[in-house]
Amino acid sequence: MIKNILCFGDSNTWGLNPQTGKRFSATVRWPAKLAVKLGANFTIIEAGQPNRALVNNPPFAGELSGVTYLQSYLNELEIDLIIIDLGTNDLKNRFSLNVHDIAAGLTALIDSILNFYEQSNAPGSPKILILSPAHVREVGSYAGVYKGAEQKVVQLAAAFANVASIKQCSFYDLARIVSVSNEDGVHLDEKQHQKISDALETIIREF
After folding, report:
1. In order of start, what are the domains of the chain with their CATH numbers?
2. For 133-166, what is each residue's pLDDT tens digit?
3. How far apart are CA 90 and CA 121, in angstroms?
4. Contacts of 44 (CB under 8 A, 6+ apart)
């Protein structure tokens, strides 16, 4: 039986290349690489979107950036596992959010998923894997945008792990294995995408 895995995240799930600002090819992006690794018994749905945040919908980006867009995937597809890779955009200085605010946004997203399946009378809701993001650095072109984020992001893993424990979700801290690029301090280079796909393959095969 084929298992469907939804990768719901931001630009680091979408595959933004920090050197060019364009999208990495499917041979580089971690969801696409994960699909190759897992093989024919798994289907990976790539649902990354630049600027997507847990708490706020960034201006001008429209509904696609908001977590409300997740419902369209749940309506259309039978999902076995949802990988949530969000939190980086919430660290932007203009939002003035603290770690507790961001963790509350994650909690609200998970509650929305669970409520959706309860109301739809589905036989069971998907498993959920929460990823805590790589540590943002205040360097390069995004230094001003993410002013103050370096201190907050270090605390985010513990807050996300606590949410995962309360909501009985799985959790993995990406900062354990990957680091952001020196070009912009936010996005991941090709080697980091490889590391994520390697780690997630191991985790998923243990579900």
Report:
1. 3-205 (3.40.50.1110)
2. 999 999 998 999 999 999 999 999 999 999 999 9
3. 32
4. 5, 7, 31, 32, 34, 35, 38
